[in-house]
Specification:
The relative contact order is 0.14. The chain starts with 7 loop residues before the first strand and ends with a helix. Helix 1 crosses helix 10, helix 5 packs parallel to helix 6 and helix 8 packs parallel to helix 9. With 327 residues, it is of the alpha/beta class. The protein is 32% helix and 20% strand. The strands form 3 sheets. It has a 6-stranded parallel sheet with strand order 2-1-3-4-5-6, with helices on both faces. Strands 10-9-7-11-12-14 form a 6-stranded parallel sheet, sandwiched between helices. A two-stranded antiparallel sheet has the order 8-13. The longest helix has 18 residues.
């Protein structure tokens, strides 16, 4: 009787914030689509008084949460996928303590020597290089045609009746590089409203946790008379259902994650300009990459349609990861 490969035991580790966790979890799920695997999600938090310490000085006993390591007598995971600054000391510890039993992968640029990890999956716009670096457009994420389709039925009653074209709008907020002032929010809202009205379609809008309340209020006020749904943050998150139902996706330029996720759908991605607080740097590199791939264009006030091959960078990273593991 032929026996298949033993399932990989994968630990997914982050500080629990959705944007962080989804990177590691998305990569783990992509691995699990290629080979049998069991995924164990772990969330960590450092004691607030010690969180400022540099990576080299942090130790697991400083955690405010339980250390995400196996209990005595339990095996180490085969694969450890971690995201974010909070996980760096733990990833380094796992590589040492497991004695090589655990293959340690870090997503994002760790701002440490990549050779300290077994593999680093980093955004190409961060320009990180090395023999242990896999560069991808954007960051790993959980969006696939299957996950979007699975999300749709729960929101079908509200979305299926909306007139087409349906426009998904993903609004970010203030960061080190960009801002969304009330005046700029009003300008964006008016341009979006004009495009939706001209098309005879509808909108599906969601704000991020970084969206300033004043900007959120302005945009909601100016767009609420249009057919559609402006999600207020209450109840189940309809983002995946929005992306599944959309004919167009509008995304503010402040989030590399949102742009790359949108480009994985194969639907036209229109990039909304923000108020720049400094040179766009890596964001400009990402958007140039997406434009070169035919996925994204600056929003010009119209809802022009085009086609392109959906980005599947998370799946590519998963294949590279398994190859590095020798599987």
């Amino acid at each position: 009787m032929e026996v298949g490969p033993k399932p990989l035991r994968i630990a997914v580790v982050s500080d629990g914030r959705a944007g962080m966790e989804n990177q590691a979890l998305g990569l783990a799920e992509a691995v699990a689509r290629l080979t049998p695997a069991h995924i164990d999600v772990k969330r960590v938090r450092w004691r607030s008084a010690l969180d400022w310490l540099p990576v080299a000085l942090k130790a697991p006993w400083m955690l405010a949460s339980a250390a995400p390591f196996p209990a005595e007598g339990e095996p180490w995971p085969d694969l450890w996928i971690a995201t974010g600054r909070a996980t760096l000391p733990l990833s380094l510890a796992v590589r040492r303590l497991s004695g090589g039993k655990t293959f340690v992968v870090q997503t994002q640029d760790p701002r440490l020597n990549p050779a300290l990890f077994d593999l680093v999956v980093a955004p190409a716009h961060d320009s990180l290089t090395g023999t242990r670096v896999v560069s991808i457009t954007g960051s790993p994420h959980r969006i696939t045609p299957e996950t979007l389709a699975e999300a749709a039925p729960a929101f079908a009653g509200r979305l299926d009746v909306l007139p087409r074209p349906r426009v998904a709008i993903l609004i970010g907020g203030r960061s080190k590089a960009f801002d969304l002032t009330p005046d700029h929010a009003a300008t964006l809202a008016d341009r979006i409203a004009a495009a939706v009205r001209a098309s005879g379609g509808s909108l599906m809008l969601t704000f991020s946790r970084r969206t300033p309340e004043a900007a959120k209020a302005v945009m909601t006020g100016r767009l609420s008379d249009l057919p559609g749904w402006i999600w207020d943050g209450e109840g189940a998150n309809p983002l995946f259902a929005f992306l599944n139902a959309a004919d167009h996706i509008l995304v503010t330029e402040d989030s590399a994650n949102m742009a790359a996720e949108a480009a994985s759908t194969g639907k036209p991605v229109h990039v909304l300009a923000m108020v720049a607080l400094k040179a766009p740097g890596k964001f400009a590199r990402l958007h140039a990459d997406l434009e070169a791939r035919g996925a994204a264009r600056p929003f010009d006030g119209s809802l022009e349609t085009w086609t392109y091959a959906p980005l599947a960078e998370t799946d590519r990273a998963a294949r590279e990861l398994l190859r590095a593991m020798g599987r």
